[in-house]
Amino acid sequence: MNFCKSFFGQSPRMAISIPQKLILLALLSSSSISFSEPSQETKATAVSDLTESPDTTTPSTKDQLKNFTILGSYSSYDLLVPGKLGVSAAYNESAEKTWELEYLSASISGPSAFKHLGSLDEKRISLLRRSFWNKGSFSGYFGLSWNSLEVSLGNDLLAKLGVISTSKSTLLRMDTLGINTGIGNRWSLWKGLTIGSDWVGISQPLLTVKKNFSILDYATNQTERDRIESALKIAMFLPRLYLLKIQVGFTF
Fold first, then answer.
1. Between 87 and 19, where is the model more confident?
2. What is the dihedral of CA 80, 82, 87, 89, to 10 degrees?
3. Among 92, 85, 97, 100, which Cα is nearest to 65's?
4. Could you tell me the residue range of the domain that residue 9 belongs to?
5. Model-level pTM?
6. Which H or E element spans position 183?
7. What is the pLDDT of residues 121-158, one digit of tens each?
8. Any idea what the CATH number is for the domain that residue 121 is in?
9. Which of 34-38, 100-104, 119-123, 124-128 bottoms out in mean pLDDT, i.e. has the lowest?
10. Cα(225)–Cα(246) distance, rounded to whole angstroms?
């Protein structure tokens, strides 16, 4: 306010003439202080800052693109021996393709085993190629499986075979190689937590890799021996259908 009064001559100590006022206004209008238009480079930088896309990748997508996945598995409905437990390790080649190595096993013995059998043990090792459709959670897989079936004969069955005494193992073993295929879903959640389910699948033995029926050489009852050997050969190539195999683990 004091400046305005001085400029327009209302203060006796700071009064100036009209020509002086005009000269002062001209000097102010030609001052070096200006508000010039920004340069083209400055405009381009500002536009780039505004239009740069933020990182909107979802946590599940990020986890899916990480290199490795480790999962624990439980296959409750699984032939020949249900209730298989195991683990699988996957290399995530891309958001659509993974390579997986899976191990599953289960055994039954005592009253729950098949009649006259001491125990039944089954193992399956699979190398699978899994494909996710449209980078989503739904997938199909195909690969190779090595199946091992071990049967321990109980005393009742040994007596029927006519095996009186032997120092040999009562274990029968059958190893086969076949294909494994199925469909399922898998989701990557918070901080790499991964869950999934293979809804339905089948492991079909095709080739006999190893067979050990040596205990049958000690059987004196030929009829019973032929019957058991035929049953074991059928079991070797019986399709291993499985349902609702649950998987939980981490992607990192």
1. 87
2. 50
3. 92
4. 2-51
5. 0.69
6. strand 171-188
7. 999 999 999 999 988 999 999 999 999 999 887 777 77
8. 2.40.160.20
9. 34-38
10. 39
Q: With 80 as the cut, is the pLDDT of residue 120 above it? A: yes
Q: Can you say whether the dihedral through the CA atoms of 83, 84, 88, 93 is positive or negative?
A: negative
Q: Report the length, in residues, of the chain.
A: 252
Q: Looking at the structure, do residues 121 and 229 belong to the same domain, yes or no?
A: yes
Residue 245, SS3? strand
Mark whether 91 and 30 lie in a shared domain: no
Pair 71, 134 in one domain: yes
pLDDT tier for residue 39 given thresholds of 50, 70 and 90? low
Pseudo-torsion of CA 76, 80, 86, 92, nearest 10°? -100
pLDDT tens digits, 211-242: 888 777 778 888 888 888 888 888 889 999 99
Burial code of 107-125, b = ≥16 C-beta within 10 A, e = fewer? ebeeeebeeebbbbbbbbb
The rounded distance, in Å, linking the Cα atoms of 104 and 78 is 10
Query: Which H or E element spans position 242?
Result: strand 240-251
- Contact (Cβ atoms closer than 8 angstroms) between residue 129 and residue 90: no
Higher pLDDT, 9 or 91: 91
Kindly state whether residue 57 falls inside one of the protein's structural domains. Answer: no
d(CA 221, CA 161): 5
More confident residue, 78 or 58: 78
One domain, residues 148 and 91? yes
Residue 104 is encoded by which pair of tokens?
């599953």
Q: Which residues pair with 68 in a beta bridge?
A: 91
